[in-house]
Predict the structure.
Amino acid sequence: MTTLAGVLFDKDGTLLDFDATWGPATREVLGTLSGGDERLFRALAETGGYVPDTGSFRPDSPIIGGDTTEFAPAWALILGSRPDEAFADRVNRLYRAASLTHLTAYDDVAPIIDGLCDAGLAIGLATNDSEVTARAHLEALGLLDRFSYVAGYDSGWGGKPAPGMVAGFAAHANAPTEAIVMIGDSPHDIAAARAAGAFAIGIARTPRAAANLGDLPDVTIRSLTELPAVLGRHFALPSRPIA
Ligand SMILES: [Mg+2]
């Protein structure tokens, strides 16, 4: 049995309640970008897969699993702006401020991550959000010091579904990728884990996540409280049992 070296988490929909955080944040960002023009607001929402009437997202929304480069250029064109890096930076800044205001983590996150740390595992974050926003989120949640590795789409490893972030974490943990678990709520997370040779755990906290993940993951759990038992079934653990 392989001894587990580290657990790499996706952020949105895995640690953070996606709709509770990004629903109101997206309403604010689109409100600012559209300057209060209802027609523009609706066009931006449609392109981003955001449903203003419910405050939720379509399953195919690029905001769910994608990075800014997958939706900001289309927004720029709708607004008559240049779809350049400056526009993407502006979107990232607006989202950073708005998401911090509405940041909502799941209740199981802090206790489970504490248990993994105590067991001697390396803890990492691999997100298609920007690294600076990811660090701000972890800091606001009081979790940043538990994470020895934080990678965003702009950290130099590439974004998911490419394997770079997972391979980078394995190198950071000084372990082979088979000794790494990647856990996330979208097919991007599972594909990145697979491509790197890591164990892929899906987390289906919502029916939308369950539908998107399908049977792609090695194992799918519904909350992080199920994680220690799953790890114990598939890996030897480095030191003490996970609480
Ligand atoms: Mg996610």
